[in-house]
Design a protein that fits this description.
single chain, 340 residues, alpha/beta, Rossmann fold, 10 helices, 14% strand, NAD(P)_dehydrat-like, Epimerase_deHydtase
């Protein structure tokens, strides 16, 4: 019996590369979607031990179901991770909303035409479950099922400050894309199940980073917070390896009616030592050369209900120490290369 084939978007990304690595290690075959032909060679090198289990398809733009062609042929599962990154564009409609919302719906429409597909796993974000103003205060409760109650206007205006504007546009696109996937699933009654994963701030070793300049995304936020007097994001964290594991567990989890999306919030808790005070103390003690500038007192972490991820998916969270070590060991190593 041949191994099931997983179609993966966003494989070049921080989370996506870990997802592909774990899927291959578990014996799956993968078909990786890239936007440019030039991206294929780096992925071939990254997964060189699994050449017979990896193939590629080039899809420059996801915003129409006809864009997928034969990419979903013989596919059993879909992992959709490709999404606009904060700060990578200035126009909300074209740079954030269309790729996030239309890209997701186009993929779902295309998947509906393929009778071999059993599950579609969409990678959303914790942000899809909290209001736009929540991050600024850091004082919020997050759990599954909250998206529909979040007030949001797709025609809203954004701050003039580029950093604040980029973050808010990204946040808004996550809310609206998830809402669109919920509505699509209700109205289309697909033959497959739709599962959405909602990671908080994802930290850990980046499989593709080879230089200090390659530090980006949520890892860059963590690095920036360590070197600032006060953190500029709330402490809600999850190890990238745990997010990848959740993808594979989502393929086996018992689910109900296909008209309902199964949501899973992915975030470790203070029980795993994830507080800014413990993070700063650990970094100072284990990495004294980093010049950590964080100083307390710190705000309490947000309240997150992770009972579904733990009880239904069976995810076990790595400790803060394990995640921080994997992240900081890499940052120390890539910077040491500059002095050799």
């Amino acid at each position: 019996m041949s191994s099931p084939l997983i179609f993966v978007t966003g494989a070049t990304g921080f989370i996506g590369s870990h997802v592909v690595s774990q899927a291959l290690a578990a014996g799956f075959k993968v078909r990786l979607s890239v936007r440019k032909e030039a991206q294929i060679e780096n992925l071939r090198k990254l997964f060189s031990k699994h050449t017979t289990s990896v193939d590629f398809t080039v899809i420059p733009d996801f915003t129409g179901p006809d864009r997928f062609g034969k990419a979903l042929e013989d596919v059993t599962y879909v992992f959709h991770l490709a999404s606009p990154m904060p700060g990578k564009g200035s126009d909300f409609e074209s740079d954030y909303l269309q790729p996030a919302v239309q890209g997701t719906i186009a993929l779902l429409d295309a998947a509906k035409k393929v009778d071999t597909i059993k599950r579609v796993v969409l990678v959303s974000s914790m942000l899809a479950l909290i209001p736009l103003e929540a991050l600024a205060t850091g004082n919020f409760t997050v759990k599954e099922g909250l998206n529909a109650s979040i007030p949001i206007d797709p025609k809203m205006s954004f701050p003039d400050d580029p950093m604040a504007s980029g973050g808010m546009k990204y946040h808004a696109s996550k809310i609206l894309a998830h809402r669109a996937s919920l509505e699509w699933t209700r109205t289309n009654s697909p033959s497959f199940h739709v599962i959405t994963l909602h990671p908080s701030f994802v930290f850990g070793r980046n499989m593709t980073q080879t230089s200090p300049e390659g530090l980006d995304g949520t890892n860059a936020m963590l690095w920036g917070c360590l070197h600032s007097p006060k953190p500029f994001i709330p402490m809600s964290a999850v190890d990238v390896r745990d997010v990848a594991t959740a993808h594979l567990k989502a393929l086996d989890v018992q689910v109900g009616n296909p008209t309902n999306v199964e949501e899973f919030l992915l975030t470790a808790t203070p029980m795993q030592n994830w507080t800014w005070g413990q993070v700063s103390d650990f970094a100072r003690e284990k990495y004294p050369g980093l010049d950590v500038k964080l100083e307390g007192p710190f705000e309490e972490p947000p309240n997150a209900d992770t009972s579904r991820a733990e009880g239904v998916l069976g995810v076990q969270w790595r400790s803060m120490e394990a995640t921080m070590s994997s992240f900081l060991d890499q940052q120390v190593a890539v910077r040491a290369q500059l002095t050799e």
